[in-house]
Design goal:
Elements: H1 2-27, H2 34-60
Helix pairs in contact: 1-2
Amino acid sequence: MRTRRSILWGLVAAFAFLVLAQGYNLFATERITPLVMFGVAVVVGCVATALTHATARSLES
């Protein structure tokens, strides 16, 4: 169960980053390329998954 929760939090973080990046692209004159956006979203998702998994026990109490 802890693994599934960690993966879901990683997906939430990745999608949140993509929403912020799209908002930046909407209002900025210099655009972020889709490849960079998705690459950073994967990194953000992996880091969030790892941190959530590592700290899950301390957060449950």
